[in-house]
Amino acid sequence: MTLSVLMPVFALMTSLLASVILFALPEKGYRLRTIINLAAAILKIALVGVMIWGVAHGREYEAAFTMVPGVEFVLRADALSMLFAGLSALLWLLTTIYAVGYLEDSPNRSRFFGFFSLCVASTMGIALAGNLFTFFLFYEMLTLSTYPLVVHRGTTKALRAGRNYIIYTLTGGAVLLFAIAWLHGLVGDLRFQEGGYFSDVDPSLNGPLTIIFVLMMVGLGVKAALVPFHGWLPQAMVAPAPVSALLHAVAVVKAGAFGIIRVVFEIYGLEAAEAMGLLAGLSVVAALTIIYGSTRALYQVDLKRRLAFSTVSQVSYIVLGLCLFGPLGVIGGLVHLVHQGIMKITLFFCAGNYAETLGVHRIDELDGAGKRMPGTSVAFTLGAFGMIGAPPLAGFITKWTMGAGALEVGMDWVVAVLVISSLLNAAYFLPILHRLWFAEQCEPWPHERRWGRLETSAWLLWPPLITATLMVLAGLLANVPFSPLSWAELIVLREVAL
Amino acid sequence: MTPSLLYAFAGVALCGIGLFGFLRLQHLLRKLMAFNLIGSGVFLVMVGLAQRNGQPDPVPQALVLTGIVVAIAATALAVVLIRRYYHLSGQTTLAEPAAKSARPKARSVNREGAPE
Amino acid sequence: MTLWLMAGLLFTPLAWAVLTLMVDFRKGRLVTWLGMAVQVLVSLGLWAAVASDGGFLYLLGGWQAPLGIELRVDGLAVTFVLLTALVAAACGWHASIYLDPGKPWHRYFWPLFWFLWAGLNAVWLGGDLFNLYVGLELISLAAVGLVALGGQADALRAAIRYLMAALLGSLAYLLGVALIYGQFGTLSLAGVTELMNSGDAQSGQTFPLVLMLLGLALKTALFPMHGWLPPAHGIAKSPVSALLSALVVKASFYIAARLWLDLGGELGGFALAQLIGVLGSLAIIWGSWLAFRQTKLKQVVAYSSVAQIGYLFLLFPLTWGVTEAISLQAQQGITLQVISHALAKAAMFLAAGNLIMSVGSNRVDALAGVSRFLPFSLFSFGLAGVSLMGLPPTGGFAAKWLLLQASLASGQWWWLAVLLAGGLLSAAYVFRVYRASFIESTDTDQFYHPSRSLEVIPMILALMSLGLGLVAEPVLSVMSLPFEGGGQ
User: Fold this and answer.
1) Considering Cα of C103, then C107, then C112, then C114, what sign does the dihedral take?
2) C21 Cα to chain A: minimum distance (Å)
3) Residue A330 structural domain
4) Per mean pLDDT, which range of C101-105, C248-252, C422-426 is the poorest?
């Protein structure tokens, strides 16, 4: 009983406490900082693992108290939150390992790791939030804790990116707050509940509920980088590579997408949202974002910028999946939350490795990098093929399920969107792969560094290799219990019950 | 119109004159006098207006005594501040110094300490 | 028991004031440390007493009103008493390290500090209009004296300006009191309310109320009467600025709020309430904009006070002509705003003082690189900023949430826009400071490190302001009947 209350709190506290300790550490305490970081991350994985096991066997984990009159603070572990919590706990560990190597000699490490942990704590809070109010609390905390990471380098470019980031996200937050407050005024404090609340709602409320839904999608869409609110994301790639990786794969954009899932599933209810005609509009926005992001990615010469636009496009798969309003489509969307995270983090790790080891930032400087850095390049290649959707990698599972889901509910145009998007993905990823493996190096690397006999520092090399392996496994073992796909099926069985 | 009501109206008139002076005058001492004028007006209103069945009410008289003490304290503080301000900046108004024409007196006056 | 507590609360500050008046800075500091410990304990004791037994009406020395002094000790009053004790003790502690004992006039800090504290307690507990006036004047005079401690011509100019505004405001208030007394023959707020409820309210009585509110609004620096505040708060020593922004402006607002809630329902009107609300909104927008434009760090914080005070005045429209439940929600929201702003702003001023001390310049752009050297003070500044922005989980957010709910429920949706825009605007000026501190500049690595205790104090205050949002419910439940005479 007590344990079931304490588990979500512990899961949150591991990174929160770690962050406090890390802030207090002196700048030079390198070894201690690394130990604390890794210990906290491993502890968190263990806690989340226990909760996943428990949730799969029907346990309930919940902690709640009243914060402000009429509003509760709720932490709760259900199948959906475990999907996100598991992803972030796992990738936190890998990103921490990567960041330790990446920031080896750079200044302000206490500050960096402190905010990094705070950022993960916010993500965990978002995953475990049991009602909209709690969700919003951590959503804004995430905004604040990522700002110092984005501007970490302190250059003019970073500061400008930080300013845009904060303008976009805080405005989005204000819109979201408005929507939440309005909803609260209309119907009171709503916990996230399987199947939602509005399946048999008074028709007179339809008008306000529609407006609230739109406002919420705007507020969440800013973080999820839905067009036209995506402007901050490509700029934010000036942040250090581990930050970009975290931002793109786990924390910020996923928080937005996860929020959309929560609102659609557990506040409105999939059926009610469909009945009110809300999903149709959302699906169009998502489809536009997918095509737009991929098209823009084609024209980028900076590697991280290309990946950033690719994120814009890929995250909308999640949203599009929900809009398909059928079990398969929804499963596809949910599973992409995890798959996209693993694939994108691999790509960003690799981009960071090229930048850190060879000083390469632009795509046309990558010629022949495959020979110099085979491990990184293999990981990158796998990530790219995953994104394109080549079987049997993770991305293929997503696209296949979603396509089948679209046909199932008769939204054939979605299949066309998927095909076009895959072609565009191929168009912007294959040239990179060609340069990596088949082009000859004609100029020396802009700024090369050597770490012993490996192609790069071991701290930098292992994380992308591990995530690439996970990605392959997620595709090959998609039907094993506790794989992302089976977990998404479990969620759909339990929560949506279509 | 009872005499005490007359006092009250006189008080209102004083308030008006004082307010006019307070807002229009620049010289700080004049401003301070205007403040005292408003104060007197308010006290007049207070004793003049409060009548119970034609009998003067003792309570406002007591209050006005307190009020006068407060006003004296405020005036004293203001005078100290204005004097010291004049010593430091050579100015008698609150206008921002446009140029450094004012005579900046030496720090020897510091011993006067803070206002009290 | 409560007798002793009450006596301790009201008279010992005066005793400390007289004591410290007679000794030099260092001895005054010792006396003050002792005094602060006593005050915090007494305030805690009274708070606990009221939390367990409820509020009561206290007649000082057993004398009846109107000549005696009547104190209403309700949940709200003791909450503010406790808040004052915490914030003032923090500022006093900070000042005891921050102020330079070498400057002879600094010894006057202690008596002024204690007079201020006594005046604040008198206002929180005061039950009749005239004693509130006396308390208010005590506060104003002490506060002006504290501002003048800066010593230079600029500080004196700001102090005189402040004094003039404060005196004018007090007189307007006093005139209103005189008119009310002429009409009702009583000074007790409770008495006036009673008379009015028995149907004695006549037309024309709105004027005294408006007059009093006008005077109090001037003293609270409501837009467009805020001109005196930024120079005074900006130029004062940091602990003084903290006291002024956190507590002093709240005293006059507290009186205005009590007047409004007791008399406003009868004497006020929709138009008056909306007008005050609009002025408050303009204060939020205009104050934040000016805060964004300032080049000096403490001016940013001072203008931010103008903006934050604007939120308080939303109390007026949100409690007029609405149901009991909505009014209660608005009152709770405003009370939380008062408390969280007091904590956050005190933290911010103290942290700003540390930052200025450390970089040796009061300009915002001088902060470049300071995030590497003084993360602690910067972090306190940041946390306080989060509360001012009204982001969760701070007290500022809880306040904003309640106000949002109150405006939605009362159908006055236009305040929603103000609340949301205000949050974004405050984010703009707070992030401007963060941004400056993150710039990596090559030429500044000469930083002076203030002592650890100077850095810890703002951190404690900022954390309290942050934690307030999490424990808003219990805090609000102690002020069981906000703004209602609990002991009547």
Assistant:
1) positive
2) 41
3) 277-498
4) C101-105
- Give a yes or no: residue C432 inside a domain: yes
Nearest CB to C420; choose among A147, A152, A174: A174
**Tokens linked to C262:** 């007791």
pLDDT per position as a tens digit, C349-383: 999 988 888 888 888 888 877 777 777 788 888 88
DSSP lists the bridge partners of residue C128 as C188
Peptide bond between residue A234 and the one before it cis (omega within 30 degrees of 0)? no
* Successive 10-residue mean pLDDT values, chain A, 498 residues: 79 87 80 89 91 86 83 87 90 90 80 88 92 91 89 86 91 92 85 81 83 92 89 86 83 90 87 84 90 91 90 90 84 90 92 88 86 90 90 86 88 89 92 89 80 80 91 86 85 70
CB of C330 closer than 8 Å to CB of C412? no
For residues C201 and C212, give the distance between their C-alpha atoms in angstroms, rounded to a whole number. 17
Antiparallel, parallel or unpaired: β B51-52 and A71-77: unpaired
Which of B7, B53, B81 has the highest number of chain C CBs within 10 A, making it the mutation to test binding with C? Answer: B81
B94/chain C closest Cα distance in angstroms = 6
> How many degrees, rounded to 5, is the angle at CA A317 between CA A311 and CA A322?
140
Partners for A (CB, 8 Å, 3+ pairs)?
A: C
Structural domains present in chain B: 3-111 (1.10.287.3510)
Residue A366 located in a structural domain: yes
Regarding beta strands C69-73 and B51-52, do their DSSP bridges make them parallel or antiparallel, or are they unpaired?
unpaired
Indicate whether C252 belongs to any domain: no
Q: Do B45 and C185 touch (CB under 8 A)?
A: no
What domain count does chain A have? 1
Give how far C331 is from chain A: nearest CA, Å.
12
- Closest-CA residue in chain C for A136? C392
Do the Cβ atoms of A147 and C375 come within 8 Å?
Answer: no
Residue C439 touches chain A, beta carbons under 8 Å: yes
**Cβ <8 Å between A170 and C424:** yes
Give DSSP secondary structure letters for A347-359: HHHHHHHIIIII-
In a 3-state reduction of DSSP, which class is residue C323? coil
Q: Which residues of C touch B63 (CB under 8 A)?
A: 130, 187
Residue C217 resides in a domain: no
Domain range holding C382? 269-488
Q: Give the whole-angstrom CA distance, residue A287 versus residue A317.
A: 8
Is the residue at C93 inside a domain? Answer: no
DSSP letter for each residue of C193-237:
HHHIIIII--TTTHHHHHHHHHHHHHHHT-TTS-TTHHHHHHHS-
Q: Which SS3 state, helix, strand or coil, does residue A165 take?
A: helix
C409 in Cβ contact with C329 (< 8 Å)? yes
What CA–CA distance (Å, rounded) separates C462 from C387?
8
Task: Kindly report the nearest CA distance between residue A351 and chain C, in angstroms.
Answer: 25
Contact indicator for C435, A163 with CB cutoff of 8 Å: yes
Question: B82 and chain C: CB distance < 8 Å anywhere?
Answer: yes
- Across the interface, whether the CB atoms of B114 and C159 are under 8 A apart is answered no
Domain count, chain C: 1
